[in-house]
Task: structure prediction
Amino acid sequence: MKFNWKPYILTLIVLLILFPFVYMVLLSLASEWRFPDLLPSYFGLRNWLKIIGSETGLLHSFLISVSISLSVATVSTLSGFFISRSVSYHPKKRVLTLLTYFPYILAPVVFAACLSYFFLRMGLFGNATGVIVAQFMITFPYALIFFSSFWNQRTKNLEDLVATLGGNQLQTFFKMLFPIAKGMLLICFFQTFLISWFEYGLTSIIGVGKVQTLTIKVFLFIKEANFYYGALSCCLLIFPPVVLLYLNKRYVFNKLV
Amino acid sequence: MFLEVKNIVKSFGSEQIIKELNFTLNAQNTMSILGKSGCGKTSMLKIIGGLLSPDAGEIILNGINVANQSPKHRKIVYLYQEDLLFPHLNVFENIAFGLRLKKLPENEIIQKVNSIIASLELEDQSGKMPHQLSGGQRQRVSFGRAIIINPALLLLDEPFGSLDAGTRQRMQELFKKLTKEFDITSLFVTHDLKEAILMGDQIAFMQKGRLKVYQDKTEFINDKETGVQDEIGFWDGLKSKETISKH
Amino acid sequence: MRNKFSHIGLVFFVLIGVIPFAAAFIYALLYSLGIVGVLNSGFTLQHWQTVLASSEVFKSFGYSALVAAISVVISVSFALWLALKFRKEFDQKILSFIIYLPLAIPGVVAAFFTFQLFSRAGFFSRLAYQLGWINEVSQFPDLVNDALATGIIITFITIVMPFFVLLFLNVYKNERVGNLSELAYSLGASSKQVLWRVSLPVILRKTWTLIALYFIFLLGAYEIPLLLGQESPQMLSVLIIREIKQFDLSKISEGYAIAIIYTIVVSVAVSALFSRKNKTLNEI
Result:
């Protein structure tokens, strides 16, 4: 009989994927875990309780991150949707799309370093508004590229059709374009939310340590060698996207098919 | 005259795709226009529908020059070869779309849509989504959606081009029936000779951006350019070969 | 239809999509030429000469490119293998969700995780100690902040590979590679020939632009090499930020010069990728 190795590899893959999640949770529950112990000497909810007591400002960071990412995702998804229409229907579409790729491809941290002078001059340095504007500058090209395939000849024909049936511009958007783009809008919102949620370098430069999002917190804890709090902030960082992914896969991808 | 098109010209770059377009059409008549792909027929329809602006010329509909009006004010509906149903709406809502834009009262919408659905023989399909329909059914919904808003003029761009022969024939008959029932004035573009002869009260032929309108069908059939003579020749040739081989 | 609406759209496009990039580029250029900036006192090529004369920039470029290339090649190969071998299994209910999970892990967390596992005081070191393989911390191989960038490469792979698996699975379906393979079999191809002449060429043809794009992303990666890299050579973004943000103000101009070089290289690469074919991410 032929040996079937597939189930073993599959199990290994699943374990490898789940391992980081489990490990982070365990680490966040631990403290006083000295080398070479394989298991920590303390294990319990102490770290989590401290957070709720807000001693470390983590809860605050969580809220800041949520509001920054929600703002960035909302603004970039909506503006990307509308503006990519103008770009995609333009006769010089190719050149314009190429221009979009430049800021998209550049390391955000380098982009931020080169822009920091302007942010300083506009009073956007070291505050949440500045971080939102800066993150928007990198999620916007993403949204623009994301929606460029939506504005094709078929969509144009549908728009023309609504016009000949007597619809105005507003009706075209609300009765036709938004409904048929619903799935894409949700996915773009999700993706731009993630880009913002995961962003570290650009935030650290424009926020100058004053806007402490979760990623900034993780770094601070790692630098202080406070790995247990670090792991705890990692948990806060990875579980919201997991929930979103679950919702996304269930509702968005199913609807798109 | 209900529709008068005068001296319409359109160029893309250096290429003139519509040359001196002139024709008239009576109300409740259908003009079928024969033309191969790339002859300028789609551009011509889009200009009349207001989706493309002409370089010069007038389009007089019911006594008013509409050439500078936006498409939503013209009451001219342009139908694509592709049925272009709204994927997020079911059959009923697709047909009701134009009425909803006008914000008609709900019971009026229901009554109008149901009566159109009956004329289109789509009674059982009303709750279905576009992807659940066959090609012929989709094309019928597309018709219904246009007819229900009572357009002054209907522009049809190869509406049956993607249908199989049987469905196509049934759709031609249904279309004839509907034009009578709803007093429709239309321009019907096709590349199919037989369809052009069948569908039109008037008939025209378009070639390289120039439209030639015939007095009657006999003139159309006798014009060498249209290809009708070749067609007749082909079938006659086949017939005579057969008679020769029989002997 | 030409209307006001789409004109406003274009204005915003230029305002948000083009001007910031141009402004950043011009500012960096002026700074590197000594025209603007705290300690600068007028046009000079001195900063550029210093940068071009020192080997650090080129080392950093080569190092970044190598690390990124190795990571991409390993990720793509593994992902192809996984996607082709476990295609049917990944379609199952729970697995089809689990393979999306890695997307929820950001670079910072992945780097932290690698550090926790592979550093000398990390999980694997402890495991090795408990199993009696090592007696002291220093006996565990240096896998983090090491010269070979092992930690960086491992983390890059964990970040990038899951994405490629999803991408390849998707392309396999959309391009109907399954049907094409069956066709090839019926034409008499062996399974090896099907793999090398049908499956791989079809998938890679469709995805190579995106693969190249990921190489460019990794080239400019910041937080992962910041945590797991060593003092020298450093990866590009880390080097640029170190120069620009350090206390020695005289180095700032050099940092901007490197940023300019990096921006030009990346822009040229992107232009080459996208100008010939009018291809966008979504067509993939």
